[in-house]
Amino acid sequence: MKLRVYADTSVFGGCFDNEFLESSKQLVKEFTLGIKLLVVSDLTLKEIENAPLEVQDIMSTIPDKFKEYITLEDESKYLAKKYIAEKAISKKYTIDSQHIAIATANRVDVLVSWHFKHIVNLRRIHLYNATNLKYGYPIIEIRSPREIIDEK
Fold first, then answer.
1. Rounded to whole angstroms, how far apart are CA atoms 59 and 19?
2. Contact, 28 vs 40, CB < 8 A?
3. What DSSP element (H or E) covers 6?
4. For a pLDDT cut of 70, what percent of the chain falls above it?
5. Which residue in 12, 44, 45, 65 has the fewest CB atoms around it within 10 Å?
C-alpha cells in the first residue's frame, strides 16, 4: 500500500526555494509517478489559489489518480481548537493547527511541511501528539520532505 502523505503549501512553494528545491521536486516526482499518494485538503487548495502561478501549476502535474482529497470537517476544527487550548500552537496560527488536525483526523501516514517553527518542530510535535492521545486520536508523523523521499 502506498504511503499517504499530507503536504501543506510550503512543500509546493519549496520547489522554487534554493534551500528546499531538491527535496521538494523529488517528492513531487514521487507523487507524479504514484510512488506515494498525495493527500490534499481544501485548506491547501485555498492557499495554493493565492500562491504564484508556478506553485499553482505544480498541483496540476500530479495525476488525480495519485491524489486523495479531504476537507476540513467539524472533527478537524474541534481538534485544531484543542491544539490551541493545550498550547501546542497559538491561536495566531490557526491554519497551521487545522492542517495538523485534518491530517490527524484523516489518519494520514505522514504530514510533510517546511514550516519548522510551527509544524515540523520536535517540541510542538510532542505537544500535538500528547493532545491527540488525550482526545482519542492516534499520533501523527510530522516530517520535512527531505526525511521521506526515497533514496536515489
1. 20
2. no
3. strand 3-7
4. 99
5. 65
Residue recorded with cell 485544531: 80
User: Rounded to whole angstroms, how far apart are CA atoms 119 and 136?
Assistant: 20
Burial of 106 (0-12, 13-18, 19+ CB in 10 A): middle
Q: Residues in the chain with pLDDT < 50?
A: none
Give Cα separations from 13 to 9, 66, 78, 91, 120 (angstroms).
6, 20, 28, 24, 16
| Residue position matching grid coordinates 487550548 | 85
Residues 6+ apart with CB under 8 A from 114: 10, 11, 13, 14, 17, 20, 24, 120, 144, 145
Cell for 51? 500562491
List, for residues 77-103, the tens digit of each pLDDT value: 999 999 999 999 999 999 999 999 999
33: left (phi over 0), alpha (psi -120 to 50) or beta: alpha
Cut 0.70: pTM above it: yes
For residue 142, give the H/E element and its range. Answer: strand 142-143
